[in-house]
Structures
1.
Amino acid sequence: MKISPILLGLSLVAAGSLAATAQDASAPAPPKVIQIAREFIKPGRAGMAHDKTEAAFVAAMNRAKLQGHYVALNSLSGKSRALFITRYPSFAAWEADNKIVDKSPTISAEFDRDLMADGDLLQDFDQVVGTYDEELSYHPHPDISHARYYEVSVFRVKPGHRKEWHELTKMVQDANEKGGTSAHWATYEVAYGAEDGTYIILSADKSMADIDQGFAESKKFAEALGGEDGMTKLDRLYGETVESSRSELFSINPKQSYADEAWIKSDPDFWKPKATETAAAKAVAKPVAAAPKPSGR
């Protein structure tokens, strides 16, 4: 059986200090609500072509001053696709953004135009909404200002096995703690858009060297779990609990991200280089007639 990277503690570092052993109580918490929009890109239409259409979205979001900032991820494994993870402190905050767009025919029209241009590059599109689960997370660090890569793992828990899922996660958390690994992650349970019992594990790395470190720590993790006997127990519980799992690797694309001001201030050369500002400005077109607000973004 293939053990997912989260179960081996493979470099699940939530974009923070690798030496951190606990989350600073004064640090901001992970967003309570996230929306993940997934765009499957047509062959040959990624890269600069997609950067251009996404720059229009970023420009419109900035003009509207919406609070739902998002990070854009481009696939390094699996099918060619882009993920946009929008972060909200609550569903009410998400609704507040929707009302801003609803009340502005100009903004609605811009989003409608941008969606049409972006849609020409896509093969498919879907969305899920997740809520943060603190109990199933491990030393999360929500500051992604210096992150460059994301590891995304998706687990489908068998119906009626929620208790075992919590037990399984606790085993992994305890082994990482005892082994002193660098593992960090944030867990979101999908509330809308996927089968019940779906969990998304998000982590971010400052470099691919972090991934190397995670693989190197797998032995430390196994020893802390109890060696071969502990891994056998974990393997058995995993098989009894998890219906399916999948892990993918993504790179962060700042040109396609609606970055929070805190991220930009912390690392302006990455999140908002001058070339990106110019491209975004050129992507802005004159307002057109009012149109219905898009369902995504």
2.
Amino acid sequence: MIERLLNAIDDLESMPARFRPAGRSRKRGSTVHARVVRPFIIYYRIDERSAAVFILEIRHGARRQP
């Protein structure tokens, strides 16, 4: 499972905006995206200025979502 999660995170390098927006960050006000890797959800934000993707959280899908 860890390998699947790491591969999904590495895959965000190409076209990270293809996954659905899940809301906005409270601290920065930037868009937070969500990628589902069953049974987990990877929440991340894209920093266009530095061309980087920041992983914010990995949650189990059965937990209450933020």
3.
Amino acid sequence: MSDNNTFSPVDISARRALDFRSGHTVRVWQKIKEGDKVRLQSFEGLVIARRHGTEPGATFTVRRIASGVGTEKTFPLYSPNIDRIESIRRAKVRRAKLFYIRHKSARDIRRKTKQSEIVDLLVPSPETVAVV
């Protein structure tokens, strides 16, 4: 396939050259069409999966937590609705798919609430201090 034939508004070679993996934090600028206007909206979060490498059907999943609620979006890598992808932070992880992150946050919240309950029970009241 020659580079002279353009069949997509996306710069495919630039998208193919993007180097982001699972564990990296990215900001995806998405084109949102409202009526006759087009605006850009960002979605920033942790890449938890990247599928199909650099094939035409390649996708990546980004997870973010907003107001305590986890939200995931799966983006096609070569979608014309994506304006740009910015890499914000790089982290080294030992897994290709980070689906365990979905349950990790809920588990951490449960631990914190259990600890706060235990601390509340162990705080001596003024009456028990006076008796001892």
